Amino acid sequence: MTIENQIPLRSDLKIIQKWINPNSQVLDLGCGHGDLLAHLQSEKQCQGYGLEINPECIVSCVEKGLNVIEHDLNHGLRHFKDGSVDTVVMTQALQAVRRPDILLDDMLRVGKEAIITFPNFGYWRTRFYLMAKGAMPMSKTLPYNWYDTPNIHMCTFHDFENLCRDKGLKIVERTVVDSRHTESLSTRLWPNLLGEIAMYRVTR
Amino acid sequence: MPQEIPANSVGVVTPQIATFNEPLKLRSGKILERYELMYETYGELNADKSNAVLICHALSGHHHAAGYHLDDKKPGWWDSAIGPGKAIDTNHFFVIALNNLGGCHGSTGPTSINPETGEPYGSDFPMVRVRDWVESQARLADYLGIEKLAAVIGGSLGGMQAMRWAIQYPERLHYSVVIASAPKLSAQNIAFNEVARNAIMSDPDFHDGHYLKHNTIPKAGLMQARMLAHLTYLSDDAMGEKFGRDLKGDEVRYDYTPEFEVESYLHYQGEKFSTTFDANTYLLMTKALDYFDPSQYYDNDLAKCLSHAKCKFLVISFTTDWRFSPERSEEIVDALIEVDKEVTYARIESEKGHDAFLIPIPRYVKLLSAYMKRVIKELEL
After folding, report:
1. Which residues on A lie below 8 Å from B363 (Cβ)?
2. Averaged over A81-93, what is the pLDDT?
3. For residue B333, what are the CA distances in angstroms to B78, B336, B337, B340?
4. Which residues in chain A touch residue B342, judged by CB atoms under 8 angstroms apart?
């Protein structure tokens, strides 16, 4: 499974990194080229590992001096013991794993807290695309065809929050950003319609 | 030697011998009063002696890892990885490769003269374990004036040495690179080794290991041992691709001489090996493999064992390696993670089986190069 959605990661990372305490232990699932981990290591003295499956990304992480473990998230987090890290982060990968619900459980088994970001399928442009064209939506955020997309479990904010509720998880923080990755009054008022990317901070 | 030596080769190299007169007490309790180690070096040792990389060899390896001897047709066994501009870049690193104690390529071993008898040691040569090799390698580092190695790198049995270094001399290395290895052998692996040993020891020319006294070698036994081992280093796919069911002739001959290409290949490998390798060394090396299990001294807890390490680790496995499968490497990775050690792990796609660790597979080369560049950067070499 390769997670390399061309979402401008920088802006959602800026928000996420505020949620991570200095000197904490972080696990980054689908860490890509390691930008978040590198930032957390140099700016917040965090320690941790990135899990990745893409060979190019693994080399990028090695070049940045990061600890990267080749691992398919579909196999769960068996490398890690219960409660072994402070925060488990997964940016833009939830929708691409075979069983997001099971992985979410595993994230909160390993970490005290989980930070998850994903593209919102309830975003108005996505809804409009499907309604107007009658075809699976494609955009900068979702650049794939239906048949070659790694995003096999697209969901909306409502879907995700329902899952958290069913599992009895606590949503500590939620931020929703629009296509320019900024938070505004309107995205706060109508997140499922106007938010393109969701960022959640959840605990048990 | 090729007419023109490639620009990224370390060139013509000359092995050296280091003599150690301080007795070495082995794990078995036996003592080697005096021994020699044959080694080669590539690149220059820097002024503060901080750029040394030790290469540990696998079962049938030796000190000639890179470059050419004057009578070589092919370069050293890991020439693809060692040289100027290569993954283990000799423009930055001073690389040391040795023949392990008990070997048959110049270091003291079963074919050396036993000072007590004036005859070759043969099977009287004491069994050595991985920790004894690490001890002797540390002494070689002392001899070369190196206090702390930049990295210890090894594949297979060599990976076990790299791992042992991290536990045994945590203060003496910055990085440990463990390739296609395992924290200990499985029952299946020990079984393969036993079949190989049995083939050697039941050869009538074995003479209880004192065959040199009888001016002979257990050639047939060693050949069988190698044929068996060799095929466990390949994958089904790799053999299929290389040989398929191809016959040497046009049709089957209805006799028992090798007629499939794969048979002929195995015979060739066995034949070549049996004339260049010593049977007692083979026995000793397979035993060192079987005995290796550093976690046994730590309540069989590998994580507890590795918690003593202070270096950073790179662990690499290969997908079709069934002799030292990726799962075995992942046991090492899991244990390192459990005790918060710095570790990077890659599982390289390859159809080459265990042998992959010696083959310059592009992704493997790229990853090892990137990691060694990280070593250069972090140690400012």
Report:
1. 55
2. 93
3. 25, 5, 6, 10
4. 67
Q: Are B86 and B373 in contact (CB under 8 A)?
A: no
How does residue A125 score in pLDDT terms, banded at 50, 70 and 90? Answer: confident
What's the confidence (pLDDT) of residue A6? 40
Which of A58, A92, A89, A54 lies closest to A72 in space, CA to CA?
A54
Give me the active site residues of B, please.
Answer: 156, 321, 354
What pLDDT is attached to residue A194? 75
Q: How confident is the model at residue A124 (pLDDT cuts 50, 70, 90)?
A: confident
Ranges of H-type helices in chain B: 130-143, 157-168, 187-201, 219-233, 236-242, 261-276, 279-291, 302-306, 326-338, 362-378
Report yes or no: B371 at the A interface, CB cutoff 8 Å.
yes
Nearest CA to B12 among B68, B63, B79? Answer: B68
Nearest residue of chain B to residue A77 (CA atoms): B334
Residue closest to A10 by CA, chosen among A120, A91, A85: A91
Q: Is A181 left (phi over 0), alpha (psi -120 to 50) or beta?
A: left
Q: Is B8 helix (H, G, I), strand (E, B) or coil?
A: coil
Mean pLDDT of B188-209: 96
Q: How confident is the model at residue B154 (pLDDT cuts 50, 70, 90)?
A: very high
**How far is B166 from B235, CA to CA, in rounded Å?**
30
Q: How many CB atoms lie within 10 A of CB B187?
A: 7
Is-contact B39 B63, C-beta < 8 A?
yes
Helix or strand holding residue A146 (H, E): none
The 10 Å CB-count burial string (b at 16+, else e) for B115-131 is eeeeebbbbbbbbbbbb
Alpha-carbon span B37 to A128, nearest angstrom: 75
| Rounded average pLDDT over A49-66 | 97
Q: Is pLDDT of A135 > 80?
A: yes
Cα A16 to Cα A12, A55, A116: the distances in Å are 6, 25, 9
| Dist CA B176 CA B164 (whole Å) | 9
Q: What is the pLDDT of residues A65-85, one digit of tens each?
A: 999 999 999 999 988 999 999
The Cα B381–Cα B220 span in angstroms is: 49
Residue A181 confidence (pLDDT): 67
